[in-house]
Structures are given as structure tokens and as C-alpha cells.
């Protein structure tokens, strides 16, 4: 069977510049500059057959998104051979959407770009609108959409253009559980129709449940390509090993691998499609290159001289000098004005810091309150770097960085227990169902059923807690005396936090606190305390 996708020694190299002007200077430089380049992917080779679903995993910066753009033919490779027997379609958050156009206009534009006729677009447009399910926002500019709404629209368009190859790049990391299930159902239909799917995600649980094979990208290269279970097992082992390193070792490991990505291509002999040139053609290219460089320099010189002549003619020299003197004098005499930023906000916000002080006035002369992570406030206006907020009949000022403006149109993103497995102790992964079956039990019932009690405490609010230290669980009882909160302890930060953080409805500025929503629980992840708190929704 001939593969539907075949990549052989594919590389993508980007030139690195310190500033934009360096790009221009390089055009007119006589000396050959030292090649400062970066291989986002290097010597990638693999095949995918019709009907296969390939998962692509890897830590941040491993080249997953670059590979997805290559597969979707959004960018060409620098070298190597790529063959695709079918029409690809990329689904990423806002990929290919024009922010200035409405959702309806984007549907028409993207369908036209996929080669569909006007009559064909009219046949599918209602199905696209129904699938996206964004209501009246379909007629609003995309720049007003939340990331979840953009993902909904992008996915809906792509699956209705009937692609042969579907590339899904983290597009399902936003949006609610209902839409996620709808997308999985659609992709299952595609699998049954024999379409090839590339599924890029940080979530190993999503990859494991959906993909036939997994491609593990690591600092621009293929670390492993094999059956899903085998690759996921090895990937998790790597993450565990990496997290066992201290900070200096982690930094050194990353620097060594990034340095390899900035070195020259070791072996380009196997590159075909994008690299082959005959000696005769190379010779011609060098001659033309020298001629074009001379022509560019001559043109630039003529333009500079012409501009100077126009500027200095008709007594403009004295006028220019006088103008500069006037401006210089005005700068010296003019007092510096303090820029005042003041504007109405009138929007709901949430506290995104562990603690946020509220002050009586915009001079912060007196503290009148303190807010905690996830507390809701109404933001009335911005005054420089402060927000004027209102909560519990209190009005005051707090630092702008303390508050995240809530997107009311953003759909709830529901997490699952399995999403937290990369962070939690093994006891949670294997026994969470048993421990959570105690929700609703009273104090005496829990003590009687469970063995291994290590401590009994009371919170500042007077709520009782039972600690089961060997199992890394704490039960908290509400005012009625029943369990409504379960805390798992000894949580460890891993590379998989990138996937989990995408599900967070709120995260602190320093990325130590996260707030999630599950079907039946509110979830608070605290890396400072190394805990995850699950509170039953009332």
C-alpha cells in the first residue's frame, strides 16, 4: 500500500536576526555574514497510511507546530522530500481566519481557498454554522471572538471542506466538553471514511484514547515513532526523568539541545526536492547574485543622493536647522507631563493572584480589603495601572495585574480526572474513584470506613479535616458535617502542565495557581502548596 503522506529528511531552517534592520543590512553587505540559523525541525522522516490517526507529542519548542504547518503546506520545507496524496486541512486556534472579517465572511473565504464553487459553499454553509454553534456571533468580526469560538469556527469549516488529510493542532484544548465530544465524533467518522488524521496535543490521555500511532518530537527531531502505548510509556518515563533533575541540570540539558538546533545541517546529501542544483546552475546563481548586489547598492546610492538633493534645495537647509533649534528649545523648556490613562471598563473580573489588596483611593493611601485567587469583582474603570473595583458593596482600587477580565462568551472548558494524572501521586491515579466515593459521607462514617488516618485538623474557618498521609488525601467537611472537598497532596510539576494549563479557566501571573471546572467539581491547583483541591459543586 502506498502511503498517503511520506516525509523524507525534511528540515525547516529559520534565519535569526537580533533586530529587523539586520535583515536589510544583510542585503547590502559585501562580507558573508556568519550563518545564524535555527532548525525548527531537522531530518524528519516518516510515513502515514490511509485511515491512520497519528498523534504528535513533545515538550514546548519540540517542533510540533512547525511540523503541522509543513504537513498543511502552510510553509515550505528548507530541504527534503515531502509527498502527499490528498488535500490537507489545518485546524488550529484561529488558523487561517481573518480577524477583520465576520464569521460568515470567513466561511466563504476559506471555502473558496479550498477550491469550492459558490454553489458548493451554499450547500455546506448551514451545516458549518450549526456545527460551530456560536449563535449571532457568526455575523460579528472574528477579532471579537474568544479563543474557544475561533477554534469552533475553524474546526467547523475544515471538516466540511472534505479534506483527505486532517491536521488538528491543539484546537481541542479550548472549548467545552460538549463541543469536544462533537469533534471526536466527527473525527471518528473521518477515520471510518479512511481519512488520515494528525492529532497534535500536550494531553497524553487524549492521544492515548484516539491515536493508532504516536510521533514523539524532541528539539526538532523524531525521538520515536511507534505504536501509541509504547511511545506514551517512553514519553512519560522521559518526563519523570527530566523532572528528577535539579534546576541547573534542566537548564544545561535544554541549552545543549537548543545549541544542536542552531548548528549547521550535518547531512544534506539525501535532500532532494528542495535542495538539488547542478554545478552549472550554482555558477550562474553566484554570477547573478554578484550582479544583483551591485545593482542594489547603486540603486540605494542614487535614492539617497536624490533625497538629499531635494531636501537641501531651495533654502531648505536653513529652514531645517531653524526647525531643529526650535524643537530642541521647546524640549528643554517644556515640563515633563505625566501620562494619565483613564477609561471605563464595566466588566466582570477575577483575581489572578494568591492575594490582592484593595485600597481606599487611587493613591493607595489606605488598605480597605483583601481579595483571594478566583474572587469575582466588577471592574468599573482603569486609572493608570489600577483598576477601580466593586465587590460585596465595597468600592476601591487594586493593581491592574491582580485582575483578569472575564470573557463571558468563552465556553466553559471541562477537565477530567485523567488530565491531572501527570501531576498526582500514583495512589490518586489508581484509587481516586474509591476515595471520591466518600463525598457526602459524614465525619464518623469516613473514620470508620478508611484506614491509615494520620492527622485530624481544623481550618481557619472552623471546618474539620481528616488527613490520610500515606494515601496523599485530605477530606474536608462542610458546615453540615459531610465531605464536600477532597485534597490530594504531594503534587509535582511536570512538562505535561502545558496541556493541563490549556484547560484552566484562570491562572495566576506566576503560573503557580490554576482554576479548573469539571462536571461535578471546582478544582484548584496550587504548586506552592503542592496540592489539588476538588470541591463538589452545589
UniProtKB/TrEMBL annotation:
- At the top level, the lineage of the source is Bacteria
Which PROSITE patterns does the annotation name? ABC_TRANSPORTER_1 (PS00211), ABC_TRANSPORTER_2 (PS50893)
Chain ranges of the ABC transporter domain: 5-244
Listed Pfam families: ABC_tran
Keyword Nucleus found = no
- Mind telling me which GO cellular component terms the entry cites? membrane
The UniProt similarity line reads: Belongs to the ABC transporter superfamily.
Protein name, as recorded:
ABC transporter domain-containing protein
Amino acid at each position: 500500500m502506498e502511503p498517503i503522506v511520506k516525509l523524507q529528511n525534511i528540515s525547516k531552517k529559520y534565519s535569526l536576526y537580533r533586530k529587523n534592520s539586520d535583515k536589510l543590512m544583510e542585503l547590502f553587505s559585501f562580507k558573508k555574514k556568519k550563518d545564524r540559523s535555527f532548525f525548527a525541525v531537522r531530518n524528519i522522516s516518516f510515513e502515514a497510511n490511509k485511515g491512520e490517526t497519528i498523534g504528535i507529542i513533545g515538550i514546548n519548542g519540540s517542533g510540533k507546530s512547525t511540523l503541522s504547518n509543513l504537513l498543511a503546506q502552510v510553509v515550505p520545507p528548507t530541504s527534503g522530500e515531502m509527498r502527499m496524496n490528498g488535500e490537507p486541512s489545518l485546524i488550529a486556534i484561529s488558523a487561517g481566519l481573518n480577524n477583520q472579517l465576520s464569521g460568515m465572511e470567513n466561511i466563504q473565504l476559506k471555502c473558496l481557498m479550498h477550491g469550492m464553487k459558490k454553489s458548493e459553499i451554499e450547500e455546506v454553509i448551514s451545516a458549518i454554522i450549526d456545527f460551530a454553534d456560536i449563535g449571532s456571533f457568526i455575523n460579528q468580526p472574528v477579532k471579537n471572538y474568544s479563543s474557544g469560538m475561533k477554534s469552533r469556527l475553524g474546526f467547523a469549516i475544515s471538516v466540511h471542506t472534505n479534506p483527505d488529510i486532517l491536521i488538528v493542532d491543539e484546537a481541542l484544548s479550548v472549548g467545552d466538553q460538549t463541543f469536544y465530544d462533537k469533534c471526536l465524533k466527527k473525527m471518528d467518522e473521518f477515520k471510518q471514511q479512511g481519512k488520515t488524521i494528525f492529532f497534535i496535543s500536550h494531553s497524553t490521555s487524549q492521544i492515548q484514547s484516539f491515536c493508532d500511532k504516536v510521533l514523539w518530537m524532541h528539539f526538532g527531531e523524531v525521538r520515536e515513532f511507534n505504536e501509541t502505548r509504547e511511545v506514551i510509556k517512553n514519553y512519560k518515563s522521559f518526563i519523570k526523568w527530566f523532572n528528577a533533575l535539579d534546576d541547573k541540570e534542566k537548564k544545561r540539558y535544554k541549552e545543549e539541545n537548543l545549541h544542536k538546533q542552531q548548528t549547521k545541517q550535518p547531512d544534506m546529501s539525501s535532500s532532494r526536492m528542495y535542495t538539488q542544483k547542478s554545478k552549472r546552475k550554482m555558477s550562474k546563481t553566484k554570477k547573478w547574485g554578484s550582479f544583483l548586489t551591485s545593482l542594489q547598492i547603486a540603486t540605494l546610492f542614487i535614492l539617497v543622493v536624490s533625497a538629499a538633493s531635494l531636501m537641501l534645495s531651495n533654502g531648505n537647509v536653513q529652514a531645517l536647522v531653524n526647525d531643529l533649534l526650535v524643537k530642541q528649545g521647546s524640549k528643554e523648556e517644556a515640563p515633563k507631563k505625566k501620562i494619565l490613562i483613564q477609561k471605563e471598563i464595566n466588566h466582570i473580573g477575577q483575581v489572578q493572584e494568591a492575594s490582592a489588596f484593595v485600597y481606599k483611593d487611587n493613591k493607595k493611601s489606605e488598605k480597605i480589603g483583601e481579595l483571594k485567587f478566583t474572587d469575582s469583582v466588577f471592574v468599573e474603570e482603569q486609572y493608570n495601572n489600577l483598576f477601580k473595583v466593586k465587590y460585596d458593596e465595597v468600592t476601591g482600587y487594586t493593581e491592574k495585574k491582580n485582575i483578569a477580565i472575564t470573557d463571558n462568551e468563552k465556553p466553559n472548558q471541562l477537565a477530567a480526572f485523567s488530565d491531572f494524572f501527570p501531576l498526582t501521586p500514583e495512589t490518586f491515579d489508581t484509587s481516586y474513584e474509591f476515595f471520591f466515593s466518600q463525598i457526602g459521607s459524614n465525619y464518623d462514617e469516613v473514620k470508620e470506613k478508611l484506614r491509615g488516618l494520620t492527622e485530624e485538623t481544623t481550618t481557619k474557618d472552623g471546618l474539620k479535616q481528616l488527613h490520610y498521609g500515606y494515601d496523599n488525601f485530605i477530606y474536608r467537611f462542610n458546615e453540615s458535617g459531610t465531605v464536600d472537598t477532597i485534597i490530594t497532596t504531594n503534587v509535582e510539576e511536570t512538562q505535561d502542565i502545558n496541556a493541563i494549563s490549556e484547560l484552566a479557566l484562570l491562572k495566576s501571573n506566576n503560573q503557580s495557581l490554576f482554576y479548573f471546572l469539571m462536571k461535578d467539581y471546582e478544582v484548584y491547583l496550587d504548586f506552592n502548596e503542592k496540592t489539588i483541591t476538588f470541591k463538589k459543586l452545589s
